[in-house]
Design a protein that fits this description.
The protein contains 8 helices and 7 strands; from the N terminus they run E-H-E-H-E-H-E-H-E-H-E-H-H-H-E. It is an alpha/beta fold. It has 2 domains: about 200 residues, NAD(P)-binding Rossmann-like Domain (Rossmann fold, 3-Layer(aba) Sandwich); about 35 residues. A 7-stranded parallel sheet has the order 3-2-1-4-5-6-7, sandwiched between helices. Helix 3 runs parallel beside helix 4 and helix 4 packs parallel to helix 5. It is globular and about 50 Å long.
Amino acid sequence: MRVLVTGGAKELGRAFSDALGAQGHQLVITGRDQKALATAEAELTAQGVDVETHVADLGDPGATPKLIESLGGIDVLVNNGALGGPIGPTWQVDENDWWHTFEVNLRGTAFAANAAIRTMTSGRIINVVSNAGVHRWPYVTAYSVSKAAVIKLGENLAVELKNRPIAVLSYDPGMVDIGLMGRGCDADTDDPDLWRIGRWARSQRADGRFTPVEQSAGLLARIVSGEFDHRSGGLITPKDA
């Protein structure tokens, strides 16, 4: 299958790309970091993976849709790219930064999904979300609320697509020791808000609540394969592994 992974060259997205490449899928990886994309393409190609990379910023509402339309069709879209957003009391953080998180996490995801739906005859759209979108994440509200909106987007799209063979699923990969959570655990700062988040992240890791990266990537690969299509509109978590 031809699978497009946004934000697929770094951190958890790269782990997703590695797992999907190992399964033999044809990969299209996007991101903002040209150097990271080049590295991912070279390393995956050396492993025998059919992969191409493209610079596409989810903050640009037209970039990913134009790419999808130019590809002439994909089977699966993995909406992984996202911003962590500003940290601090909601009324104190920069409001433009707060809103920009929605422009990337929600608008970028929605517009990519729309483009995929317009070009797909069948397949699936997988929106990578977070437990923070189900419950809460105080002091990181832009991320939390934007991910909640993405979950609701998936629920609505699934109903709108019920008469077409396109599944829409939200995937919470769990807390992993990479990316946003990994950086939180390693943060060494005097900023009280960052320190609060770091302390919480370290407590979660110490309590054994992190999900191994390999498990997160492996479950994503199962979703890509179609194993969970019957749950279109639903949320898949590591508990489903």
